[in-house]
Amino acid sequence: MAALSAAALTSGCSTLPDDGELRAMATNAGAQQKRDAEEVRLRTVLGRFDGIEGLRPGFTAVSDVCTGPSDGGFKKEATVHLMSCSMSADAVYGVEGDITEVLRRIGASGITTWSENVNGPGSASGGSLDYALMYHRQQGVFPQESGGLPMPAPYLKSETGDLSVGWDYPPLPGAPVRSAQVADDHSCRADIIPYSRCVTDPGRPPSITDLRARYGTVLRVSTGAGSHGPYLIVPRPGNKTG
Question: Which of 13, 68, 167, 189 has the fewest CB atoms within 10 Å, i.e. is most exposed?
Answer without folding.
Answer: 189
